Amino acid sequence: ADGTVEIPVVFNVIYNTSAQNISDARIAEQIAVLNADYGATNSDISKIPSAFQPYAAGNVKIRFKLVATNRKQSSKTGWSSELEEMKKSSTGGINATDATKNMNIWVVNSILDENGDPGTLGYAYYPESAGLWYDGLVIGYQYIGKTGASAPFNLGRTVTHEVGHYLNLPHLWGSSDTGCQTDYSGDTPVSPGPNYGTPSYPLNRVCGGISRSQMFMNYMDYVDDRAMFMFSANQKTRMQAVVASSGPRAGLRL
Ligand code: ARG
Ligand code: ZN
Ligand code: CA
């Protein structure tokens, strides 16, 4: 009645060792983190600097509900983000469960980049890929949930960040590595590139000769999990447009 949309979530866990076969409890923790972060009920929301409070999203009115967990053992020790082998049973993975109706999350032991190197925490597809066989998120098992997850990425916020991409949010510095590009949200200050670790506020950075106080505590930056705790109001508008009845991910609506 208040316009909240509930997204059905399917976890596809592909593991080699039993430690990589993350527990149902950890998956439940991750869903709880998503519901807190997207509902603005996260306990650290009180840390938003007062200068940014007028631009905070508040409740994004998108919720997440676990509908299935699929598990598969594999001898593979790494999974290429280019080949997307984790998403097809014919290449050792698990097929998506109707990607038009569900947000699929593949959990793998290691994500390999285009050079075959490990280290990527996660990645996701924008709504332009809605419903395709590879649509959804891929996340390293170390970064799911909280209990047993890998510090400093052990508060479940890698998934919060990747769901942001899935719902049409670029990084704060835009989609190009050059930075200082638009992220299509007028209330997130223009940024030259990622911030890491736990920056202290205020942090000013320059684009086009103009210095701006950076919203590094936004989920769409690269800071540590404990240093990110907000979406902006314009980001909420963009995400709501994606799941609206006329939006590219309308199929997710129950
Ligand atoms: N580097 C990844 C990406 O751009 C995820 C970053 C997640 N950050 C975090 N604090 N968990 O998609
Ligand atoms: Zn990202
Ligand atoms: Ca912006």
Automatic annotation (TrEMBL):
The yes or no answer to whether the keyword Protease is present is yes
Family note: Belongs to the peptidase M43B family.
Tell me, what is one Gene Ontology molecular-function annotation carried by this entry? metallopeptidase activity
Among the GO biological process terms of this entry, one is: proteolysis
* Boundaries of every Peptidase M43 pregnancy-associated plasma-A domain copy: 96-244
From which residue to which, out of the full length, is covered?
85 to 338 of 338
Q: Which domain of life is it from?
A: Bacteria
Q: Which UniProt keywords apply?
A: Disulfide bond, Hydrolase, Metal-binding, Metalloprotease, Protease, Signal, Zinc
UniProt KW Protease keyword: yes
Record's protein name: Pregnancy-associated plasma protein-A
